[in-house]
Amino acid sequence: MKRKYLYILALLAIALLGYNSVYFKKLSDVKKAQKESFDFKAYADSLYYKGILKSKKTVDLTNLISSLKSDPSAAFEKFGNRLGIGNSAYFMIKSTGKIIDIKDGIYTVADEHNGVVFIDTKYIFGNDLRDASGLVKLTDFKTNAQFNKVSESLNDIVRNEVIPKEIKTVKLGDSISFSGAVKLSKKQTLFTDLLIIPSQIKLQ
Amino acid sequence: MKIRHLSLVLAMMVLILGCSSKEKAEKPKIAVVVSTLNNPWFVMLAESAAENSRKLGYEAKIFDSQNNPAIESDNFENLISSGYDAILLNPTDSDGSISSILKAKTAGIPVFCMDREVNTDDAATSQILSDNYSGCVSIGIEFVKELKEKGKYVEILGLVGDNNTWARSKGFHSVVDHFPNLKMVAQQSGNFDRTKAMEVLETIMQANPDIDAVFCGNDAMAMGAFQALQAAGKEYNVKIFGFDGASDVIEKIREKKIVATGMQFPKVMAQTAAQFADEYFKGRKTFPQRVPVEVELINASNIKDY
Question: Looking at chain B, which residue has its C-alpha nearest residue A86?
């Protein structure tokens, strides 16, 4: 009789072990999990610190404007980046100037050579920085959704970590150096009042 | 013996030349398969694709999938058996359309997607798509500024099985969700349809009469939302945002009754797809899998340009 209970217990134990050892999952769920396991934050971190900050593609704003005025097509080709079809392109620029106004996250800067430019520290969204960098190709990711997630992670780093730290020490009247993305249209002929999505702001 | 051989060679040559001249005589046929012809935007896309194909010297016929992947699949079966040489496709469903594209691929027929993306990068020959995400980031920024970072709003989505619906929604929320005083009180599908969107908003407003804004995944739904708000006498209190660049919405922006929309370029997408098909016939076999087409924000500040 006791042996019978022992067998039942052993069977139950084996069944329990077996039940907990095997998991069934939908193949679509596994594939989805594999896709989502990509670490966008780490990728964006590397893109920002090892790519954008060290990029040799960043062009001096004065040089860019002078190139645009003399040969717009060549300037768009050499310095700009447009994925696919469109009338505009993104450029990664750098320059210096004096802060003449700060309002609602917009730093108005009197650029020594290029008139007034606006640095938007609040609305750092979209694909401006990713595309201006020219460092990420559409074919690097399987879907547009993944490609856009790169921008979201990159923007999070710049908007939440980098810029708040950098502007803490910056005040009205200060001279700064800055770099960032600017979107220009091929139809554009005036290059004043440019809006810059910053990648870096430094006190001079 | 020699004469027999010679006559055989001659017969073969006649056959070969005959075949090749027959091939040259037949114009390649292009099928334009569109998700629906019940929406002027898609009519324009389909007609433009067919017109561009004809301009390039090909026969072109439009097939309507009536927003139904099963009808789309039937269309594919028919056009594969009818000997079409290329398909310019506006898919009905980002997942549901894949099997049809793969059937065409197996039959050796290239498929060029227009406007709507499918969830795989190895089925279509190329996908020419509006940059919905970036367009809706711009609308999101405009939305936050217009509402001065606070208020209650409704989002009316397009078709839930369509990638564009979510690309637009994600672009919009990638901005708006960072402003905690903007509260979404309802998010419902209006199926990209004007009447459906009007009904959806009317129902939502019964429980939420105090909304400040509506973001719609396309302009047809923005017009439906406008009708619902007009009927409730709230068209001047609630800010409406759309997406497409439809002429009636452009007019409403001019009249300050709708705040903004994202201008898509269906003619550019259709022309590029037809051009790619032409290049395919002429021997090009490698195409970029995705070609984004820029979307431009239209609001009161630049409406004079449109």
Answer: B294
Domain-wise residue ranges, chain A: 25-203
Q: Where are the alpha helices (DSSP H) in B214-288?
A: 219-231, 247-254, 266-281
Q: In what order do the strands lie in the sheet with B213-216?
A: B182-189, B151-157, B213-216, B239-241
- Cβ separation of B134 and A126 shorter than 8 Å? yes
pLDDT at res. B23: 46
ipTM tops the 0.95 cut = no
Interface of A with B (CB under 8 A): 82-88, 123, 125-127, 138-139, 142-145, 148, 152
When pLDDT is cut at 50, 70 and 90, the band that residue A81 belongs to is very high
Cβ of B294 and A152 within 8 Å?
A: no
Residue type, A45: D
| Contact across the interface for A88 and B294, Cβ inside 8 Å | yes
Paired tokens of A91: 């450029």
pLDDT recorded at residue A20: 62
Closest to B180 in 3D by CA, of B138, B147, B142: B147
CATH class of A25-203: mainly beta
- Return the number of other C-beta atoms located less than 10 Å from residue A94's C-beta: 18
